[in-house]
Structure formats: C-alpha cells, structure tokens
Amino acid sequence: MLPDPVLDPRRAESLFQELQRYAPHYVPELNLSDEQGAGPALMRIFAFLAETVLVRLGQAPHKHFVAFLARLGISLLPP
Questions:
Q1: Tens digits of per-residue pLDDT, 27-45?
Q2: CB of 11 within 8 A of CB of 44?
Q3: What is the reported pTM?
Q4: Is the C-alpha dihedral spanning 18, 22, 27, 30 positive or negative?
C-alpha cells in the first residue's frame, strides 16, 4: 500500500516559532519577553494541539481508502 501523503510537515516547534513571529502583529500587547509567561505557554499549548490535528488530518486519506475498500466488500487482512 502507498504511504500516506504528508499534508503539512510542520511540527509543534515550527508552529510555535511561526506563532511567535506573527503574534506581535496581531496582539501587540502580548508580552513574549518572558519565556515562562502565560503568552508563550498558551502558544505552546496551541502549537501542540495544532500538531495533533495536522497528524490526524494526514491519516484521513488512509481511512477513506479503507472505507472505500469496505464499501466494495473487500476486507483487510489482519496484521
């Protein structure tokens, strides 16, 4: 079977860096100078959750293919 396509290769750290780059333009009052502050903590949580969503979206084509095979009456062999 073909490997699942990579829809978005970004991971949590690169998403966090992108958030840090764009945050001053959207939320100028956000204090990013303190690494232990609430702003960076929320951004890290968001980046982690966004990575989880991106990984799950990457698995969708395989699930659709399996559902297509099931619709045709073809079942997968157990591993």
A1: 999 888 888 888 999 999 9
A2: no
A3: 0.72
A4: positive
User: How far apart are the C-alpha atoms of 3 and 19, rounded to whole Å?
Assistant: 30
Complete DSSP assignment for 15-76? HHHHHHHHHHHH-TT---S-TTSHHHHHHHHHHHHHHHHHHHHHHHHHHHHHHHHHHTT--P
Structural contact between residues 23 and 16, judged by C-beta atoms closer than 8 angstroms: no
Whose tokens are 């609430």? That residue is: 38
Structure tokens at 25: 């333009």
The SS3 of residue 79 is coil
The residues near 6 (Cβ < 8 Å, ≥ 6 apart) are 58
